[in-house]
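Researcher: We're teaching a course module on how sequence relates to structure. For the next exercise, students receive a sequence and then see the predicted structure as C-alpha cells, so they can try to spot secondary structure elements on their own. Here is the exercise chain.
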Amino acid sequence: MGDGSRTPERVLFGAAYYTEYQPNDRLKEDLDLMAEAGFSVIRVGESVWSTWEPEDGRFELDWLQPVLDGAHERRISVVLGTPTYAVPPWLARTYPEITGEDGTGHRMGWGARQEVDYTHAAFRFHAERIIRAVISRYADHPAVIGFQVDNEPGLHLFHNHNVFQRFVDHLRHRYGTVEALNEAWGLVYWSHRLSDWSDLWTPDNNAQPQYDVAWREFQGSLTTEFIGWQADIVREYASSSQFVTTCIAYERPAIDDEQVSRTLDVTSGNAYYDMQDGLLLPDGDRARQLWRTRGVWSLNLTADRMYASKQAPFLVTETNASSIGFPWSNKPAYDGQWRQAGWALVARGAEMIEYWHWHTLHFGAETYWGGVLPHNQRPGRTYREIAQLGAEFAAAGKRVVGLTPQADVAFLYSTPSKWLMEKYPPLAGPDGEAHERAWHEIFDAFYKGAFDAGLQARIVHVPQLLEGTGLEPPQTPAEFARTNPILVAVGIYLTDDRLLRWLGEYAAAGGHLVLGPRTAYADTEGRARTDIAPALLADRAGVWYDEFSNLEYDVPVVGEVLQGAGTHWIDGLVVDGAEVLATYAHPHFAQWPAVTTSTAGDGRITYVGTVPDDALARALFVLISPVPDTWGPLPDSVTVRTAVDRAGRRLHFIHNWSWEPCELTAPSDLLDLLTKTPIGLGDPIRLEPWDVRVISE
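Model: And here is the predicted structure for the students to work with:
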C-alpha cells in the first residue's frame, strides 16, 4: 500500500459506516456486530459536510469521537473522509456562483451531489477550511489509518465561465499563439480560424474533434489538480504510516484514473457488479457494461483496471453488500457469491474489501441500495455470508496481502482515445446510432477473449509505458518484451511517433504485438495521419489498409484454427508480406483478410482487422498463447487465477461459477490456505456450487 510501512498485515475488511444516518442510537450494537463479522476497517465522514459545519463557520466536530473510540476498542481501523463532494445548502445559498454548469450558462439544479464547480475560489476557501477542521481534529486518533479525499470525483464536465477562461489560458500557454492553435487544430476547416484568443467558442456546440481532445484532457486535469490539492492539505496532518487516497468511480467522464493516482499513496475504487446469474459461467454474449459490470470477465477487468492505475495493489472502497442501484434492480447475491467476488478481487491485488455500506438506508436517494444489514437492522443472510468471508481473510492473514497478479498478456490503455470516442465513436450501436462505449467495445472484445482462453491480463496505460509509473521508471521495449511477451494495442487511436516507435521496437525485441481497429490512425491532436495505416507499423506488420467499413451485422470469419465472426468494423487489409490466418466468408469482404501475422525482427505482429466476437477472440488467444495444462482441462464454470505473494510463493484462487459441483486434480503438493489442509499430488480438489478455494504452493 504505497510504501512498506503502510502494508496491512491482513486484507482490510469492512464497510462504510454512517452512525449519523441511523434512525436510532445503536453505535455499540453496530460495532459489536462488525467485530463479530471480522471487520477490521470502516470508512466514515465523507458525505456530511452539513453535519460537520451546519452553518458558515460553526463547526461541530465531536460527534465522530465515539465512533472512532468504539472502533479502536474493537481493533477496527478507520479511513476518514473529507466531505467536499456533498455541499451544504448554506454554502450553495451564500455563493450561488459556485453552482456547476453542465452547459454554458445552464446551472445544474441542487438536490443531488457534486453539483459544484470545484475550481471556484469561494468553494476552495470553504473546502480547505472544513478539510483542515476535520483532519486536524482526528488525524492523531489511533484508529485512523488513512484518509479518503472527496469521493467519486469527475462526475461532471464543467462549463462555468471561469472554467472556460482557464481553458483558454491553458491553450494560450500550450500553443503560444492563435496561429499555432489554428494550425494544430486545422481551424481553416469551416472557417474556424481564430484572429484572437477571445474568438474561441465555448464547447457546447463544438464539432471539431481537435477541440474535444483538448477539452476532455483539460477537464481531467482539473479533477487531478483538485484531488492532488486536497491530498497535499491532508498530508500536512497525516503521519508517514497513514495513507491518502480517493474513491474512484472508473466511468466518471472527467477523471483520468492513472493521472489522479499519481497524486495519491494508493489507488482506491468502486467494484460494483451484477450478482446472481451475472456471475454465471459459461456466460452468454458480452452484455452492456456501465458503472455496474456484468460477467466474471468484467469483474476481473474492474480489478485489473484498479491495479493498473498505479501498477500496484489497491483498495476496494465500495462494492456490493446486497442489492445495488435502483429500487427496480433488487438482486442480492446467491449463497457463496460474496466469497467468490471478494477472493476474485484479492487475487488481482486488492488489499481492502469494503462494502457500501453497513446498514440499508431508511431515507434518501439510495433507500434501496442494500447494506450489510437490512432495513430491520437485524443480521440476516447477507451478514452471515459476509462474516464468513471476514473469517477467511483473518485465517489467510498476510499471505494474501501485497500480491502481484500473474499476467500472461498485457493490454495497452488509452484514456484520451476513450474520451474522444465517447463523442466521435467509430462504431454504431444496435440502432445504427453512435455507440457511446465504442472504445471499450473494441478493448473489451479482446480482453474477454483472453479471459475466455484462460489467460490473465495486465493493463498498462500509455504514460506508464513511456514515462513509468512515478514509483518505477519506464522499461525499455526489450525489457518489457521479456516480462510481457504479448502486448495488445487495440483502439489506441491517438498516438505520437514516440509510442509507435516504441511498439515497433517491442516487436523487434521479441515481443508479440497484437494490433486491432483504430490503432495508430491519428496523432495526439486527433488529426488523421498521412502515413500508411497502421502508421509507422505497416512495414513491420506486413499489412496495410486505406479503406474501412462499419458492419450492420456480424460477418463469419474462417481459418484453419480461427473461427468466429467479425463485428462492428472491418479494416480493408492489404497483405504485404504477412501470413493470412483467417478470412471473411462474405461475397465482398472476402477480398480482405480478417487476421494476419508477420515476423518483425525477433518478434511478431498479429493484426486483427475487426472487432472479434467471443468465439474468434478466444480462438485468437488460444492460438498465440496456449495456457500451460497445469490443472488439466478445466470445466467451463471454473477459473484459476494465480498471484505471487511477497515471499515469492504462488497462490491459486480456484472458482466454480455455477450451480454444479466439480473436481480438479492437484498437479503438485499443495496447501489449502484457509483450512491449512495439505493436498497431495493427484488428490481431488472439490468445489461446491458457487465455491472458491485458495490454494498455496
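Model: If you want an answer key for the exercise: The longest strand covers residues 564-575. The chain has a mean pLDDT of 96.
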